Amino acid sequence: MDFILDYKWFFLITAEVVFWVCAIAFLLLRYWFQLKKLSIFVFIIFIVNDLWIALLAYFDYQRTGEFSIYQIIIVIIIVYAMTFGKSDFKKLDAFIKRWVAKKRGEPIDKSLQPVKLYGKAYAIQEWKQFALHFVVFIIVHIGFAIGVGFSDSLQQIPLSDFFGVWFDDESGNFPFNNEGINKFSQVWLIILAIDFVITLSYTLFPKKK
Q: For the chain, N or C: smaller number of CB within 10 Å?
């Protein structure tokens, strides 16, 4: 186990490569080669690989006794797989089906064609995606609060100064009792804010054909 944890980043990167290789292999075996039983075996490897990633985070926490960037990245990977990953996999599934049909000269099912949205419909789609992003952000931060707890100085900071202290705190121990989590949270909040601005722009300036 010490060997695995000493090279934990290697095993994490390898697991991510296996994740995408298995995803593509599953679809190709299922649609191009028509080997559905073999594709199920690949899918099992796909699931076991996700469990392995989760175990890496657990073992790392058992060894260090504290939350780290390594564990946070794994949490994000798992959260992505459970949220945005599902829709992305559906898109990949439809793409492989279209590709196989095109290569074989077969008619492409209209339901597999990507639907292009414009105007209000596109804005609504973007707001739904932002809402999902926001919900994931909140859930993960609730997990941070449960896992490491809030900073002792949190109650002493006025709400109007909250974000200023969050980004200016030199010790890195605000608002959670973990510097790594706070740094990660700052970056994610900036990304969330950018996502909000981009989403809002599609309402103010609707996408045209």
A: C
